[in-house]
Design goal:
3 helices, DNA binding, 2 strands, DNA-bd_dom_put_sf, DNA-binding, DNA-binding protein, SinI_DNA-bd, globular
Length: 62
């Protein structure tokens, strides 16, 4: 099992502030796990989320 990431770790990975990551959590726009009141992230889910939300994967219909 992969080591779970903290908010600070995810913020560094995606290039956001921890406050911005908290906002994504509040809006349920980023996958997270709540363990005993603490928020953690699965690295593979974060990687998939980044891929899903990257502009490289958006197809523009004309």
């Amino acid at each position: 099992m992969e080591k779970l990431l903290k908010i600070k770790d995810v913020a560094e990975i995606v290039g956001l502030t921890p406050v911005a990551v908290y906002k994504l959590i509040y809006k349920r726009q980023i996958p997270f796990i709540k363990i005993g009141g603490r928020i953690r992230f699965n690295p593979s889910q974060i990687s998939a989320w980044i891929s899903k939300n990257s502009y490289d994967n958006i197809i523009v219909k004309r």
